[in-house]
Write a structure and sequence with these properties.
Layout lengths: L9 H12 L3 H14 L4 E7 L5 E6 L6 H6 L27 H7 L2 E7 L6 E7 L2 E8 L4 E7 L6 H5 L4 H18 L4 E6 L2 E6 L4 H9 L7 E7 L3 E8 L11 E5 L2 E3 L2 H10 L12 E7 L4 E2 L10 E2 L2 H18 L14 H17 L2 H10 L2 H13 L25 E2 L9 E2 L11 E4 L3 E6 L2 E6 H19 L4 E11 L2 H9 L1 H7 L2 E4 L4 E8 L7 H18 L4 H13 L9 H11 L15 E5 H6 L4
Parallel strand pairs: 1-7, 11-13
Antiparallel strand pairs: 1-2, 2-6, 3-4, 3-6, 4-5, 7-8, 9-10, 10-13, 11-12, 14-15, 16-17, 18-19, 19-20, 20-24, 21-23, 22-23
Length: 619
């Protein structure tokens, strides 16, 4: 029998490796920027066209490469960073695997120009799909320039999986920001489609933060520092009053390497406990310096996941550093004994209630009745038969309901959910529900023929809004309420590109937004059914929720937007509702095509039947 195991060709092996190292244009930008930093550059320029799909170029003034090194850099596992096993435990450079250039060259058309200081001529190498097409001397500036064209041109499946230009550019900007923050002494420039996005001179960390995120960060920065024998923590945190609904500007660096750590993020949030409004996130840029022997960075090819040999100590130090910074800058909670202790509830609950009353007024119920599908009509009819509202008192929202006094003999009501099994209808003269009320301002309790129904008010309202917004996006029917005083929102370049890419969908929902400066937008109108709300807060919350959904779920953009907006504008648990509002909410829930579950799969209601209730009292 012939042998069947053989070595893969280098070009194929490089393409396989590229699947881990180069997932999108931003991955290539990250690797090349880190190479520029390792080369000792103090000036780096990045040029992007069509979100990196057409062209990416990174130029630096580092030490450059010789002709031999330039050719060798395109081989797999060729690196100048380590030479023996022990070096893995003392790594201070950004790169060390020796896979980046070979992987990028395997899935693109690459051109390298490089010259060392003191040499008259540099080296030009042209590569296509790992194949060297040209190598010759060339006159060029000191340092290295790498141009990548047509990324994934020879891997059509991977190219088809790339997102829109706005999304891909957002990822590129995020990688650029991380490297720029880690190296504030280096001058960085970023150009997108021949337009300057960033021009950051070398300087202090605080200047770099302001240059990246805007002048409004100047007022919120609070310095942070803590040091032990082997560990040093320093950087900046944002003051609680500047906390935002988006969690984007949160950065951890270990030995100048950006990392992702939910564990350390929990330490920061723990230090801010009691100082932040619910659903708000603080800004922070924190650097952790320690001996590399205590860190394992060889966990994943992206090198954003690392392991500490004593993670608890790092957690404690991070929390202590943040708490000390808050105390040093007099950022502590205060108690006013003369203040109304219910003021916070009145303000938060009152504003939510004012907004939500607009969404469940009679005209909205009538609109649901007029536009409902056959499935929705069936759900509503079943609901009206299950629960008779006659004894709740006539409300404006009930005037258009059909006559509920038709005979119900031999009638069986069934909802399409395991929650609601088939329930026989008792005699018509049986005592019906006489009232509905809230339990802890979270659940609506209703007496129905089979027992007791509990409705989760937030989940129910999310389902109602989700279906409404999906319909707006499908038919482009979202009405807009003009703002008397339009608000301006400053975004980072990544979020700005994302918003501009979704401008058409947001207009379909009822948002009226326009560019207003470099990375700013002006909000001229909100969806009409949101009511009196803070435009900036709603918009920032929508973007944050959209990004969260995108990172956790693989769903179409329209569904993501509808979910995100429903989540951010729905009635929250803790909001007090009057009887009319509760009645309208329940009516609209059972007019939905799928009233049983919220958009995220959470159950909206549950029926506790009489037999189960009786079992509680039987001995």
């Amino acid at each position: 029998m012939p042998d069947i195991i053989r070595l893969l060709p280098d070009s194929l092996a490089n393409q396989i490796a590229a699947g881990e190292v180069v997932q999108r244009p931003a991955s290539a930008i990250k690797e090349l920027l880190e190479n520029s930093i390792d080369a000792g550059a103090d000036e780096v320029t990045v040029i992007i066209k069509e979100a990196g799909k057409t062209m990416m170029q990174i130029m630096d003034n580092g030490k450059g490469m010789s002709e031999t090194d330039a050719r060798m850099s395109l081989e797999r596992h060729a690196t100048s960073k380590i030479t023996k096993t022990e070096d893995l435990f003392s790594i201070r450079t950004m790169g060390f695997r020796g896979e980046a250039l070979a992987s990028i060259a395997a899935v693109s058309q690459m051109e390298i120009k490089t010259r060392q200081e003191g040499e008259e001529l540099g080296t030009l190498i042209t590569v296509e799909a790992s194949e060297i097409k040209k190598q010759e001397p060339v006159a060029c500036e000191k340092g290295t320039s790498i141009c990548i064209k047509n990324l994934f041109y020879n891997v059509p499946a991977r190219r088809n999986f790339l997102k829109s230009n706005g999304v891909e550019m957002k990822h590129i900007v995020e990688e650029f920001q991380r490297v720029a923050l880690a190296n504030p002494e280096v001058k960085f420039s970023l150009y997108q489609n021949d337009l300057e996005t960033y021009s950051l001179p070398g300087g202090k960390l605080s200047q770099r933060i302001i240059g990246l995120f805007g002048k409004n960060y100047r007022e919120q920065l609070a310095s942070c520092s803590e040091e032990m024998a082997e560990v040093k923590i320093y950087g900046y945190i944002g003051k609680p009053e500047f906390a935002r609904k988006t969690r984007g500007e949160q950065f951890f660096f270990v030995n100048n390497r950006f990392i992702k750590s939910n564990y350390l993020n929990h330490a920061v949030m723990n230090a801010f406990e009691g100082l932040l409004p619910e659903g708000s996130f603080p800004f922070y840029v924190l650097f952790i310096e320690l001996d590399p022997v205590h860190v394992d960075i060889n966990v994943h090819p992206t090198k954003t996941e690392i392991k500490f040999d004593d993670e608890r100590t790092i957690y404690t130090l991070v929390r202590a550093a943040v708490k000390q910074a808050l105390a040093t800058h007099n950022i502590t909670p205060t108690i006013d004994f003369q203040a109304d202790i219910n003021l916070g509830t009145k303000l938060s609950g009152g504003m939510d209630l004012t907004r939500e009353r607009e969404t469940i007024k009679d005209k909205n119920y009538t609109q649901f009745r007029n536009t409902e599908s056959p499935q929705q009509k069936s759900n509503r009819d079943n609901w009206e038969k299950l629960f008779d509202q006659e004894h709740l008192g006539k409300t404006p929202s009930m005037t258009s309901m059909p006559n509920r006094h038709e005979p119900e003999e031999n009638l069986t009501i069934t909802f399409g959910s395991k929650v609601n099994a088939e329930t026989p209808v008792e005699a018509e003269n049986e005592e019906r529900g006489k009232a509905m009320f809230q339990l802890h301002n979270k659940y609506i309790l209703i007496q129905v023929k089979s027992g007791l129904m509990l409705v989760d008010q937030q989940a129910a309202h999310e389902r109602i809004l989700f279906e409404k917004y999906i319909n707006h996006l499908k038919n482009n029917t979202g009405a807009s309420q003009q703002s008397l005083f339009p608000q301006t929102v400053s975004l980072n370049p990544g979020d700005y590109s994302l918003v501009m890419d979704m401008q058409e969908e947001m207009s379909a929902l009822g948002f009226k937004i326009e560019p207003f400066g470099k990375n700013d937008i002006i909000i001229k109108g909100l969806p009409a059914d949101i009511g009196n709300a803070n435009e900036k807060e709603i918009f920032e919350g929508l973007i944050d929720q959209f990004k969260r959904n995108k990172s956790e779920l693989s769903i179409p953009r329209n569904e993501n937007l509808a979910r995100a907006l429903a989540r951010r504008t729905a009635i929250k648990r803790g909001a007090r509702l009057n009887e009319e509002e509760m009645s309208g909410l329940v009516d609209q829930l059972f007019a939905c095509s799928n009233p049983n579950y919220a958009a995220n799969g959470q159950t909206t209601f549950h029926i506790l039947d009489l037999n189960r209730i009786e079992n509680f009292f039987n001995r």
